[in-house]
Structure formats: C-alpha cells, structure tokens
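Quick one: Copper resistance protein CopC from Promicromonospora alba, structure tokens please.
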Amino acid sequence: MRLLVARRRAGGWLLLLAVVCALLLGPAFSASAHATLIRTDPAHGAVLETAPERITFGFNESVLGVPTGIKVFDATGEEVASTASVRGSELFVDLDEEVGDGTLVVVWRLVSEDGHPIGGSLSFSVGAPSDVVDVPSADADAGTDAPFVLGLVRGLGYVGLLVAAGVAAFTVLFLPRDGGADRSRARLRRVARVAAGVAALGWGLAVPLVALYQLGVPVSAITEGSTWSALAPAEYVVPAVVVAGLGLAAGALPASAAPGRTRAALVLAGSVLAVTAPAFTGHTRAATPEALVIGVDVLHLAAGTLWLGGLVAIVLVLGDLARGDSGAVVLGRFSTWAAGLLAVLVVAGTVLAWRIAGSWEALLDSGYGALLLVKVLAALVAIAIAAWNRFTLMSRVRTRATPLVRTALAEAGVLVVVLLVTGFLVDRSPETTAATSVEEPAAAPGEDVVLGQISARISLDPPAVGPATLTITMTDALGEPAEGYEAPRLSLKSGEVDLGEVEVASLGPGVYAGELVLPTGGEWEVQVSLRTTEFDNPVRTVTFQVP
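--- reply ---
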C-alpha cells in the first residue's frame, strides 16, 4: 500500500515537471518590454530647408515625461530654448527660438509604461549639415540601469510583504482554534507586525529611489516638487496599498485567542489587498494580454505568500505544537495546500517569464534573463527541500520535530533569496538591447536587388510566424545612402495569402522599415517597387523561407 502511494506521489511530481517543461520549451510569442522609438519627424539625419516648429517622436506604447529630460543643442553645443510635452505614445518638442543653418541634436529621456527610463538622441540639419558637431551626447541614455541599492530595497520590501501577509494568513487558516495554540498565535502576531514594518520601510524607501532612477536626477532633486509630480500615480498608490493592507492584516490579528469570523475576514482581506497591489506596476503593465498577465502575477504572489509565510510559521510554532497531535494536524493541512501552491507557483511563474521575456534570446542574452534563471534555480532548490520535507520528514514529526524545523528554515531561507533576486528583476529590462534612437539598424540576413542605379537589401527580421519587421536599405554605387524619387513600396504574399502593401517609415537616409505579422510559414514573396526618376519605376521580387 505504501509503495502504491509513493508511486502515485512520484507520478504527480513527474506530471508537474512535464507541465513545466512543456511551458518552458513551447513556443513563446514576442511580448513588449519597455517603450521603443519607432518614428520621428523629421527623420534621423534629414536635411531640411527650414527649421521645423515642432519635432515629433512616436513610440510603440505610452510614455511619461521627465522634468528637464528633453534638451536641444546646436552644432556648437549651445542649448536651444525648447518646450516638450507628452501625449500618450508621442513626444512633442517645440523650438522656442529661431535657429540658423547647421545640425541640431535633440537629447531625450522618458519613462516607459513599465517604469523603465529610456533615452536617446535625434540629429537633423537645417540648410546643410555642420562639419563638426560638439554636443554632450553622454546624457542620451545615461543612468538607465537600475542602481543596486534600489534592487536591495525592493527585495527587502518583498520579503517583508510575503512574510507578513503569509504569517497572518497562516494564523487564520491553519492554527488550531483551541487554547493550546494561544502561545503560538501570540508569537506569530508579533512576527507579522515586525515583518509588516519591514515591508513598509522597504516599499517607502523605494519611492524616492525610483524617482532618482526614472528621472535621472541628482539626490538634491528630492527636495523639488517637480521630481515628485513627475512620478506615475502607481508609484505612490501601490506602496500605499501594500502598507495599508498589511496594517489591516497584522492589526486585526488578536493577541492570543483565536480570531472570530469578522477578524479572520479582515486579516485575509488585508493580506489579499497587500499581495495584489504589486501586480499593477512594473513588467506586467507592459506585457500582453495585460489582464491575463496581471491575474497570473496575483496568483504567483499569493501562492508565494502562503508558501513562505507557512514555512516561517511552522519554524516558529512546530516546537510548541509537536508535543501533541496538533503539530501533525497542522502539518498535514498545510502540506495539502503546499502541493497546490507549488503547482500554482511553477505554472504562474513560467507563464510570467514566457509573456515578459518573450523569447529565448531575451532569457539567455539579457541581464533580466540571467537574474530570472538564478531565481528559477533557487526556486528548484526550495522545491527539492519541500519534497524532502513532505515525503521523508513529515512521518517522523511526532517523534522528532527538530529535523523538519531545520529543513523548513532552510527552505524559507532559499525563498528569501528568491525574493531578493525578484527585487532586482523588477527594474531590469527583459530586452537584450534597448532601442534608444532611430539609427540605421544592424544588418540582418536578407536579399539584395538592383533598382536602376540603386542597390537595395531587403531583410525580414525575424523570419518566423508572428510579428516581424521588413526593412529596405538603399545605397548608391559608392556605398553611400541613396533615396529614390519617392519612398519605396513593398508588398508581401504567400500562396493564397496576400498581405498587400506594407506601410514603411523612414529610419534615416536610405533606410525604411515597416511592422507586420506573418500568419503562416512557407515561402513568402516580397515585391519591391522604387520610382528612381519621374519616369522609371523598376520592380524586383525576392523570397524568404519562413519555418
């Protein structure tokens, strides 16, 4: 009989492992990371007859303005008076003074929807390009990497949040309601309140650190009202809800006697409120579909809260409860929950990584991916310890509780490491390379065609089903950027599927690109048409194999 039960348990763990592998190894579609600049007016490198009154930047998602984040310089490095405004996914820069001929450079810094700062520069010329351009370009993307202290403070806040909410929920859900557990209940109440204080400290300290990080301003700017007003409302609301929820949960716990229904409901409501709030900021706001990702993130945080809080509580109270049957009852009840919590944690964590990272490239070639892999490895260690606890040590709890307490403490310690890593993940971008300005893109594998006196390279990146970018790069006989009489026209079709003409935008002299979605694999035919003169319009065709 015992062998049959052991086999069933082993089969359950193997099934869970298979689900994880399927989710990890299955196809992942591209998910948006932070905002990327996709168009400008005028284009990068453009030469205009007269200076524009307004310069426009277009992004692929909403952005937030940064005080003093937009500066315009002439070729000598002198700042040109300007006014910047942001509406949705567009940045507008108005020139407030007349400028002469020569090159102008716009240096910009904004905050994307997921809270990551982005920066870059745009240069164009009036009349003719300047021979020498002396612009402080170092400000273009300086300080877009999250500082170490911010990750440390966030990790501290998450540890306090999960311990406080988890211990409070454990006290209500798992402790016996008789008087024999009053001593344990009082101890857990103190721990929950201390952890809530740690959480309040971590989440509170993170607010000014986030302001310095996102806005790229010196510490002295903390005293300026414009620094605080520039932060997104979520940067204030989320910490406030976390602190309020934990205050409700820890405050509603009784000093010794078991809580009544009203108090128990308040404890659970406060815990849920505190744990739900962090899902409404950070990477989940930029991943798609947003509602699904936020919901999965809430489940992930809730499961982690009960797991870590339960482990801390068991370490603290098992010595008191193990003398009678209460210890075995509590452990059995929590163990049943823990199996479900583990499944939710693994599946929800995998879905979040799938939607936020979006690709194996982001997982393997970015700082975010490296930290995520460290988190996964640490979680696997915790799972291994949990399995040892469940299948080996629980049967001995009536005779020897000490080994179980020690391994539970080790398991909780590993989960604290997981949370500290999470603190650094929050402000890490999952992108391998942030696009900060509209420059000529790196050459991608493609096909070459000749359009009159112009050579063109057509690239499809990535050549795969799903979102892709079609780019044409045109050069003359000397290899210099070339332009036609009109912008090039590109269209795609494959068998009976005809996507028609792709709308392309200029990325710079001789470079045009357009976004599209390939619905199926197979051989895709790209037709390129370029009016080179008023009367000549050569047309060429290239093909791409899409797996």
